[in-house]
Amino acid sequence: MEADYPIEKIRNIGFIAHIDAGKTTVTERVLYLTGVIRKVGEVHDGTATMDFMAQERERGITIGSAATTTYWKDSKLNVIDTPGHVDFTAEVERSLRVLDGGVVVFDAVAGVQSQSETVWRQADTYKVPRLCFVNKMDRVGASYERTIETIINRLGANPVPIQMPIGAESSFEGVIDLIKGTAITYNMERDHTGATLPEMTVGEIPSEYLEEYQTRREAMLEKIVEYDETVMTRFLDGEELTADEIMSTIRKATINMDIVPVLCGTALAGKGVQPMLDYVVDLLPSPIDVPNVIGVDSETGEEVERAPDSSEPLSAIAFKVVTDPYVGRLVYIRVYSGQIQAGAIVENSTKGTRERMGRLLRMHASSREELEEISAGNICACVGLKDTFTGDTICAGGNIILEPPTFPDPVVSVAIEPVTKADQEKLGEALRKLAEEDPTFLVKFNNETGQTVMSGMGELHLEILVDRMKREFGVEANVGSPRVAYRETLTKDIRQEGRFVRQSGGHGQYGHVWIEIQPLETGGGIIFEDKIRGGSVPREYIPAVQKGVMEAVDNGPLGGYPLVDVKITLVDGTFHPVDSSEMAFRQAGVLAIREGTRKAGPILLEPMAELEVTTPSEYLSSIVGDLGTRRAQIKNIEARNDLQTVFATIPLGETFAYTTALRSLSSGRASFGMEVKNYSPVPEHMLSTLIGRDKD
């Protein structure tokens, strides 16, 4: 039974990487080796098991995180394959929230890339121990050493190679294990088609590699012994360390995130995947190896701690919602403590509601297996939770609320309208369901224009959602050009009066406030503070003032974009004993913000992206020239073999249709990656142009 599987033998792991690093190919080989699939699927021909969406198979990229369960040696692996494209970073975010360990896949030619930095930072945020797998060692230009250097320099990590390659590029034959002192090679003649994986042979280290092995092993030992005093003493005394001692020390340092073990191979050819899988079991933590989950009591606000034990009260978090064409609404959950039976009544402590836990399903990409119960440390999907959404806590016998994953704000918007009146209702339903699934997808109705506006993380993100509306919901829609999600902020302190007075016979309306408006540092958000003393504004009206203020900051004075990084303090006001009301004070707050922000030095902010373009040298000048016309700031240009990598900062609005432009400039040979990093003031001479363009 599911609940009887020992928790110390569970590994909740995810494969994360920059797009095209080979993460889904690695996952596919893992599923074959563990017996989940009988034939290895390929990303490039649309047969990868974990890329089951039509859009994924057509485009050869992972869009949504896919979960499966498999077994290796005596351990159970709950595996999540995550997207690598920046537009789908929310899928990585919610997956890392519930994982105990991760395998970060790197391209041995490209090394650390832009999205590699993003996923690494996300893993740091959620304190996820990880291994590194340097993939594509058989490619021209592959370099194990250079990739490790980029891990140090660009990620600030402490990588410890526990393998060394045998050969490189076309002569890559296998790996040498620095812990066990063995050579692992592969018989590639067994199946050159990729339908199965080659036979693996474990033997003695070839004589020509012995000296390099000794040097690398010594370097590995010098780095790891400092994390165990007993082992360090023995090492310094010249004693020979056993493989078990080394393994135990590396495992402890990995779980504590002091080091990141590094392995290598080529997943497409099936080399190095089995040893990597062994080390997933040997080095990454089980649910009992990571700290107990911490939440807060929904009633008292006090901190609550839950151990990963089935005898503890139930605590679980919903991390993903999808609409399945066969079973309907699926909610993916990670159980941190206690256990759940199918059909049980549970509490959604985030919403303060009760729901029936219908069927429990163990997922394998798009297929499923029914379970009677699920216990602490496991991941499953649930049918029947109608009002549970991403980030909600499920519990029983307590009111614990676990910290939800955090998601970035959307940065690109498009207007959408149905082609026919018959599509109107279907469009609304499709948008609602897609918004339920994706926390970075927002839908708003613009009262001024009468348009429905959908916002997401990028052009591709919105393009995929529109395609899903057509295929899954049968909705035909017209979509406008993409628009940047600008923001506004202020540069001056201001004190402003807001006065709302109306007389129309009988009771009038009277609300009167004074507020102070102050700009904050970047990332400060919107802060409302009440400093009323002496009852100049009665306590019952202060929430109404705050509501009016928060409504008004959604429409800045320059272009009607949301204000950011501003503190509003309610400092004074007056009231009328008869005519004052919540509505009047809410309007007074609105008027104060509208008038005050115009005087407070408003500026327009645009999202800025870190851009990384890799191109053959002959196209470098054309690409740099084109970036100049897009207001990009070139930060650095690095040479890697016969390739040049350009690092630049560029306004997001200037990257629309850049894929097509870059393909044209480089005859299809250049590639790029980018990530939105921050917001930056729009140059004064561009202000009217950008506002006008966005409003058209």
Give a short synopsis of this structure:
The chain has 5 domains: 2-283, 3-Layer(aba) Sandwich (Rossmann fold); 293-402, Elongation Factor Tu (Ef-tu), domain 3; 413-484, Alpha-Beta Plaits (2-Layer Sandwich); 491-601, Ribosomal Protein S5, domain 2; 605-695, Alpha-Beta Plaits, CATH 3.30.70. It has 16 helices and 38 strands.
Helices and strands, with pairings:
Layout (H helix, E strand, L loop, with lengths): L9 E8 L5 H11 L20 H6 L6 E7 L2 E7 L7 H10 L2 E7 L6 H12 L4 E6 L8 H12 L3 E3 L1 E4 L7 E4 L4 E6 L11 E5 L6 H15 L4 H8 L6 H13 L4 E5 L8 H11 L9 E5 L5 E4 L8 E10 L3 E10 L1 E3 L3 E4 L4 E4 L3 E5 L2 E5 L1 E3 L3 E5 L9 E3 L4 E3 L9 E7 L3 H16 L4 E5 L4 E6 L2 H15 L3 E3 L3 E2 L2 E3 L4 E9 L6 E11 L6 E5 L11 H11 L13 E9 L7 H18 L3 E14 L3 H10 L3 E8 L2 E9 L6 H9 L4 E11 L5 H9 L1
Parallel strand pairs: 1-3, 1-4, 4-5, 5-11, 6-11, 33-34
Antiparallel strand pairs: 2-3, 7-8, 8-9, 9-10, 12-13, 12-24, 14-15, 14-23, 15-22, 16-21, 17-18, 17-23, 19-20, 19-22, 25-27, 25-28, 25-29, 26-27, 30-35, 31-32, 32-34, 35-37, 35-38, 36-37
